[in-house]
Design a protein that fits this description.
The protein is mainly beta. It has seven domains: 124 residues, Sandwich (Immunoglobulin-like), CATH 2.60.40.10; 132 residues, Immunoglobulins (Immunoglobulin-like), CATH 2.60.40.10; 123 residues, Immunoglobulin-like, CATH 2.60.40; 86 residues, Immunoglobulins (Immunoglobulin-like); 123 residues, Sandwich (Immunoglobulin-like); 125 residues, Immunoglobulins (Immunoglobulin-like), CATH 2.60.40.10; 166 residues, Sandwich (Immunoglobulin-like), CATH 2.60.40.10. The chain has seven helices and 77 strands. Strands 22, 24, 25, 26, 29, 30, 31 and 32 form an eight-stranded mixed beta sheet that branches. Strands 11, 13, 14, 15, 18, 19 and 20 form a seven-stranded mixed beta sheet that branches. The longest helix has 25 residues. The radius of gyration is 56 Å and the shape is elongated. 28% of the residues are buried.
Length: 989
């Protein structure tokens, strides 16, 4: 027995090793979680890091690979920090131009970037770390998905001239429209910027961030708190900037900016697009004031007809006007009519309260130096002397205002005349409903005309408001003048006849709804001016109510490999339209397949080889068809069509269609197996179980097979073979049993399970489960429902058929005479049986072993008597006692052990049988008288001379064998030649 000094420590070493393996850090590689939606032309940045290496300070090498959605099994090398020749030709030029790069952040992290993203860059990206160690333990690569979408962000300044010029202290109002057609959930951030003269970078004036929070720019905080700067969102896409009092520092280039943000799966926000509108030069002229005291002036039209509008403009001229406060009042006949305080609060005279409440009287501050009072309609009682008065207000430290000396304007006499002529105005189409994108046309006719005519078109958007805003005017000389809000619109006023005026507003939008007013003014030869007006209500229908989107499919449930056709029906007016086909996967992500733009261009995001699109224009109905070619499980999911219109440089998204759930089913399985069977097998022989596929779904099918053994506690998996023929044993199969089990696959196909050297424990019901695999149109394998058959196996234990001659006999012999003890086998259990024969001698109760012939041909004598052993035939064993003596009396018998094959190339004792007794008597006087002259042998009496001849032949054979052995040993003396080995052993060993 070997001994080691480490033997006592061995358990502790094993435990320590186990703890070390458990505590050893595993390598882990992580990448940004996808899908990452990015815009064409933008920057793609992906971070990747690894951890768990034994040497964290060693700089790791990384490589980036990708798979294109069109070829999911084809991996493309992009870039590697280890090998400069790693990248494929498709990416190599972009890497050389530094458009694609990979930079180490630290020894275990990198940033992968693509500066100018392209459509074909969409796919699955894999970041793999090169293992610098000799062992592998953990995860060495990670994957993410990148989706590349079109850049649909749009931004324009509306109603703004190419340049702006204001006086210091005047108010500025600018509008900007920004929208996007992205179907993913995005947030828009919006800001107004000012680039001052000589400055490199523009500074934000005010911004609305992606969380919809208003933030004033640096230097504009106090004016924002004083509400002198505002950013208002008027509708879904329109933003307006209001600056109450311009300062000289506001001079420069002013523009608006929109940013599109999307939230990645890790909850972080990423800016996918940014666009700026055109810069507009803004000039702010400084005011020159000659004295500290304000100068007040009043301007108004001094002659009006009853029903017209009286507009009293009060102007103030003073130094440092933008930073001073004033109270302004209008006086009629020396009495205060209305007053605006320093904080903008309006108070009116008691008898004018009702007129102010219904909107006939309105006072506003239109700038730092201008205040206006409107009275409409005027009455004859409103005629008289008007003036305005201004007081400077100084704010004290306590916040209260201290009023300074008042300054009055010159008084102005206003006459109100009652019209006496038959002049009147009438409009056609008093109430109209117009569709978006159409032209609005209004006709205004004047009757009883005696003088020169001019026309003004106004509009109010709120029914409850009495304040109309001017759109466009045409004076008596034929000069047209558009209001600032419509400067960028193509609005027209024509005069086809002397008494008819036509107003046209092309390409109307929903925001153009409202009450339109036509005011025709007549200037008579005597200088008298009379005005008449007429209103018309115009409703521009909502695009949502006009455009109806409906999606349907004739066969939403199809078999693998068949086509699916989806039809998107759109009822619409004639407006530019963009349609997007999208698809929601099982994980809830909405992916764009294709976008059909209003200008006829098409942008594919899905694999174009698997889809077809078609457009059928039927007038007021347009049918968009999407055909999914040879659908697979990958194309299964919810499909949707989304429509947006592009009016006035703004995307208007309409309610999307409902989802159509497309299901792709596997084809019906035609798999059939051979019928169930029952087999019986003898112990220690091989069990062969056949499972044959008798019918298959396709001639290109592959099969996976699982062999199981039914047990009460649940089926035990014996062996599995996947569709590629890779075989694995079940976890419950012990190593010793695995050597006996094998499987073979033959044509047909037929699967053969072989269990060698059957045991009783191998009996049971064996299940053969077969799963059929087919390839989908993408080349991916998918499984059909499995089929199974069972085979009942019975292992029969080998019957003990050993028998030997058991008849008793007696023999009288003389001293020194030889006698034989035969042992004859009459039947054996198997043809491969081996035998061990032992002879015994019994005197009284004492039994002794004489001789043993082992099954491996080893002979062993256990008695002092000299014996001779021979085996005349495979079933006959004979032992001869030589030169008997007086002590040879007694009973002799033999015992036969039958040995058969056992599992593991071993042998086992199968049966034991004992022969009959031979009672031998030795005559002490030398008179040998046998009971008979025949020798008993195995129950057959054979003449003595036959026995003598047989014994002689055996002796000759043995002597010849000994002589040959001596000659082959080179003539050397190998020791005395013994008949048997004289070693006493326990007879029952």
């Amino acid at each position: 027995m070997k001994f080691s000094v480490f033997s006592p420590l061995r358990p502790f070493l094993l435990i320590s090793l186990g703890l070390f393996l458990l505590c050893e850090a595993k390598v882990n590689t992580e990448i940004q979680t996808g899908p990452l939606y990015r815009v064409v032309g933008s920057l793609l940045s992906i971070s990747c890091n690894t951890s768990g290496f034994s040497n964290p300070n060693l700089k790791k090498d990384f490589k980036i690979l990708m798979k294109n959605p069109a070829k999911p099994f084809h991996e493309i090398n992009i870039i590697s920090s280890e090998d400069p020749n790693f990248s494929y030709a498709r990416f190599f030029p972009r890497i050389q131009k530094n458009e694609i790069s990979m930079k180490h952040v630290d020894s275990n992290s990198i940033i992968f970037e693509i500066k100018n993203l392209k459509k074909e860059d969409e796919g699955e990206y894999e970041c793999a770390v090169v293992n610098p160690e000799y062992t592998f333990n953990g995860i060495y690569s990670a994957k993410t998905v990148v989706k590349v979408i079109d850049d649909s962000l749009s931004i324009t300044s509306s109603g703004s001239p190419t340049s702006l010029s204001y006086n210091e202290g005047e108010a500025l109002s600018l509008t900007c429209q920004a929208s996007t057609n992205t179907i993913q959930h995005v947030h828009l951030a919006f800001a107004w910027y000012l680039r001052k003269e000589g400055a490199q970078d523009a500074k934000p004036i005010i911004s609305l961030d992606r969380d919809f929070t208003l933030v004033p720019g640096e230097g504009f905080e106090q004016r924002y708190r004083d509400e002198a700067i505002r950013l208002d969102k008027l509708d879904e896409a329109t933003y307006r900037l209001n600056i109450a009092e311009l300062e000289q520092s506001d001079q420069g280039q002013i523009y608006c900016q929109a940013q599109e943000w999307i939230q990645d799966p890790d909850r972080s926000w990423y800016k996918i697009s940014q666009k700026d509108a055109e810069e507009i030069p803004l000039t702010v002229k400084a005011k020159v004031v000659t004295s500290m005291s304000p100068q007040v002036s009043l301007s108004a039209k001094n002659a009006l007809h009853e029903g017209q509008e009286l507009l009293l403009s009060c102007g103030i001229n003073a130094q440092n006007l933008a930073k001073r406060f004033f109270s302004v009042a209008w006086l009629w006949e020396g009495n205060e009519l209305a007053k605006i305080g320093p904080t903008g609060i309006l108070t009116v005279r008691q008898e004018y309260i009702d007129r102010e409440r219904i909107g006939e009287l309105k006072a506003t501050r239109t700038g730092n130096n201008n205040y206006q009072l409107r009275i409409m309609p005027v009455k004859t009682t409103d005629k008289g002397s008007y003036s305005c008065r201004a007081w400077p207000e100084e704010r004290g430290e306590d916040g209260n205002f201290n009023q300074g000396a008042a300054q009055d304007s010159q008084a102005m006499a206003i006459d109100i005349f009652t019209p006496e002529s038959g002049f009147s105005v009438k409009m056609q189409n008093v109430r109209q409903t117009v569709s978006p994108g159409q032209n609005l046309k209004l006709i205004c006719d004047a009757d009883g005309v005696k003088g020169q005519l001019s026309v003004t078109w106004n509009r109010k958007t709120l029914p409850t408001s009495s304040l109309f805003a001017t759109i466009v005017s045409l004076n008596k000389n034929g000069v047209t003048e558009k209001a600032g809000a419509f400067a960028s619109r193509e609005v027209r006023v024509t005069r086809p006849t002397m008494n008819r005026f036509v107003f046209e507003l092309p390409d109307v939008a929903e925001s153009d709804s409202g009450t339109y007013e036509c005011i025709v003014s007549e200037t008579q030869p005597n200088g008298r001016t009379e005005s008449q007006k007429q209103n018309v209500d115009i409703t521009v229908q909502s695009i949502d109510s006009l455009v109806k989107v409906a999606l349907r499919s004739r066969e939403p449930v199809v078999t693998m490999g068949n086509d699916v056709q989806l039809m998107c029906k759109i009822s619409r007016p004639d407006v530019p339209m963009t349609l997007t086909w999208s698809w929601e996967t099982e994980d809830g992500n909405l992916n764009t397949i294709v976008v059909l733009y209003s200008n006829g261009s098409i942008s594919w995001s899905g694999d174009q080889s698997h889809y077809q699109v078609q457009v059928d224009n039927q007038g007021n109905i347009v049918m968009y068809s999407l055909k999914v070619l040879r659908a697979s499980h990958r194309e299964a999911g919810k499909y949707q069509c989304t429509v947006s219109v592009f009016l006035h440089n703004v995307y208007k998204k309409l309610p999307a269609s409902h989802f159509v759930d497309v299901k792709v089913l596997n084809p019906d399985s035609k798999l059939a197996l051979s019928p169930n069977q029952t087999i019986a097998q003898r112990i220690n022989t091989d069990i062969q179980i056949y499972c044959k596929v008798t019918s298959r779904t396709s001639e290109f099918s592959l099969f996976a097979v699982t062999w199981e053994l039914q047990e009460d506690a649940g089926n035990k998996i014996i062996l599995t073979s996947d569709r590629n023929g890779i075989t694995m044993f079940g976890e419950q199969i012990e190593e010793s049993h695995r050597k006996r089990i094998s499987m073979r696959h033959t044509d047909g196909p037929t699967f053969e399970l072989t269990i060698q050297q059957a045991r009783i424990s191998d009996k049971g019901i064996y299940l053969c489960k077969v799963v059929e695999y087919l390839q989908d149109p993408w080349g991916e394998w998918y499984s059909l429902s499995d089929k199974h058959s069972h085979t009942e196996v019975d292992v029969i234990e080998l019957e003990k058929k050993l028998s030997i001659e058991t008849k008793d006999a007696e023999m009288n012999i003389s001293i020194a005479e030889d006698f034989s003890i035969p042992c004859y086998i009459t039947q054996q259990s198997t043809n491969e049986s081996q035998f061990q024969v032992t002879w015994f001698w019994q005197q009284g109760t004492e039994v002794k072993t004489i001789f043993t012939a082992y099954r491996n041909s080893t002979l062993q004598a256990r008695d002092k008597n000299v014996v001779r052993y021979d085996r005349p035939s495979p079933h006959q064993f004979n032992l001869t006692v030589l030169k008997s003596n007086s002590e040879s009396d007694g009973i002799y018998f033999c015992e036969v052990e039958e040995w058969i094959h056992a599992p593991g190339d071993k042998w086992m004792k199968h049966a034991v049988e004992k022969s009959g007794n031979l009672n031998v008597t030795v005559d002490a006087e030398g008179q040998a008288k046998a009971v008979t002259d025949l020798t008993w042998q195995a129950g057959t009496w054979i003449p003595i001379y036959v026995v003598t001849v047989s014994i002689g032949l055996c002796v000759i054979t043995i002597l010849a064998y000994k002589l040959c052995k001596k000659n082959t040993s080179g003539g050397k003396n190998s020791g005395p030649s013994l008949w048997t080995e004289q070693v006493p052993l326990d007879p029952h060993a």
